[in-house]
Amino acid sequence: MILIVDDQESMCWVLSKVLRGAGFSVETAGTAKEALSIATNNKILATIIDYRLPDKNGFDLFRELRNRNPKILGVLITSYGSKELQEKALRLGFHAYFDKPFQNQALIAALQACLKNS
Question: Could you give the angle at the alpha carbon of 116 between the alpha carbons of 115 and 117, nearest 5°?
């Protein structure tokens, strides 16, 4: 299952539709708290996390998810991108990073690649 965490409902809706169309099972969350609750009750293989969430940043959420499941894969998405943010995301263990807007097919390809290599 892929967990999408973004406070923009439209982004969650679009990504869930695109990923389901690519054959993934998907859950969505609008906050870190909601994401952690979903992760407690489901086997999450990978997560797509927006950097800016209302209750926590994407780095902190990913750390918490990895503490619960060290094998979880992560993709960071953001509207506030920078080279420094990208470098930090990759250092923290995210498998991919995308500035919004991004190509849906590129995101699917990144997910497929990291799941295949895990």
Answer: 90
58-68 vs 32-41: helix crossing angle, rounded to 10:
20
Taking the C-alpha atoms of residue 38 and residue 26, their distance in angstroms, rounded to an integer, is 11
Q: Encode pLDDT of 43-54 as tens digits.
A: 999 999 999 999
Chunked into runs of 10 residues, the chain (118 residues) has average pLDDT values of: 97 97 97 96 95 97 96 95 94 96 95 88
CATH fold of 2-116: Rossmann fold (3.40.50)
Where are the domains positioned within the chain? Answer: 2-116
